[in-house]
Design goal:
338 residues, alpha/beta, 11 helices, disordered N terminus
């Protein structure tokens, strides 16, 4: 199939590439006449080559959002109880409190998993009460802005609404930004993955809190904190799949969160990531929070009974992002009353 490069004035796709404002919709529309659906379905390599040719510059960078921690504080807390919000509050308090991590000057971006048009009971998205409590804690710490955003697989507004996250986060004081309402910045994800369009909130944030849900995933085994970073971009996600486990680790190397709050209130044990049947969901009533994203993903694996762990954890640990042996962090366990 012929692969023609667009001329400088060749339509919206070419202009969007030069401006660094390629959304998922523009990629799908603009690439269709260049590489064809067959090339995208075969792994997206021609599309990736096309984007590399015409989006070489970056107009944003993502800093390391971690903060210095007291040696006296635990690095991981596991809170178990019937109330998801109380579990979050207890875990964060035991870690030293949100005010140790964020300040009134901060723009905090909270990144849940809002991938699917599913209810909270179906376990495909982060529980709305978990998201809302993280927002409330940030607001209580006086943060200048608290933004909640993600790039859903499903159409964003139905996913935001049906998940319960839109209403809960807004009521708690967050700005909830749908991807179609956001600008994008071009950011180099890694040398291998190259330059991608990333939702602007992740570029302007001064602190980032990752709030994934723990669930099964048909392609990777696990969807938790490391994989949650795929939602920072609106690009064709099939382009990650040539080496998906490595892509997950490389995204984790880009995104160094201030805090990770893992929602395991209701765990989608099988048929993830989308799920659907309540029979696939197990009430685990747990929230784990901490500063080692690899360890938190390893803990999530144990909730799903996974062995061996996904390759992305080993790769991320090899990049210095954390440790697979979460028990080596001596996590504090809390029983949170009703």
């Amino acid at each position: 199939m012929a692969h023609h490069e667009p001329k400088p004035d060749q339509g919206e796709a070419g202009r969007a590439v030069r401006r660094g404002l390629i959304t998922r919709r523009r990629v799908l529309v603009g690439a269709a006449g260049v590489v064809g659906a067959g090339a995208i379905g075969a792994g997206g390599f021609l599309l990736q080559d096309y984007l590399k040719r015409f989006a070489r510059h970056t107009d944003g960078a993502i800093p390391d959002h971690r903060v210095a921690l007291s040696a006296a504080l635990p690095r991981m807390v596991i809170a178990r109880g019937a109330d998801p919000a109380r579990n979050v509050g207890a875990a964060v308090e035991r870690l030293g409190g949100m005010a140790r991590l964020v300040s009134p000057a901060d723009v905090v971006v909270v990144k849940p998993n809002i991938g699917w048009d599913r209810t909270p009971e179906q376990g495909a998205n982060t529980h709305p009460q978990v998201v809302a409590e993280v927002v409330r804690l940030c607001r209580e710490a006086g943060c200048r802005r608290v933004i909640v955003c993600d790039c859903p697989i499903s159409t964003s507004r139905p996913a935001l609404e049906r998940s319960g996250i839109l209403a809960a986060a807004a009521e708690a004081g967050a700005e909830v930004i749908a991807p179609e309402d956001s600008r994008y910045r071009t950011v180099e994800i890694s040398k291998r993955l190259g330059i991608w369009d990333v939702l602007e909130p992740f570029v302007i944030a001064t602190k980032v809190i990752n709030v994934p849900t723990a669930k099964s995933h048909a392609g990777t085994g696990l969807s938790a904190g490391l994989k949650n970073w795929i939602g920072i971009t609106g690009k064709q996600r099939v382009m990650f799949h040539a080496d998906l486990q490595r892509s997950i680790a490389e995204l984790a190397a880009l995104m160094r969160p201030t805090l990770t709050v893992l929602d395991a209130s209701r765990v989608l044990m099988q048929h993830g990531p989308q799920g659907g049947s309540l029979a696939d969901v197990k009430p685990v009533r747990t929230v784990a929070a901490g500063f080692d994203p690899v360890a938190l993903d390893a803990f999530a694996c144990t909730l799903l009974g996974m062995a061996p762990f996904p390759e992305s954890l080993r790769l991320a640990a090899g990049m210095g992002l954390g440790q697979v042996d979460y028990a080596g962090l001596a996590p504090v366990e809390l029983a949170v009353g009703a």
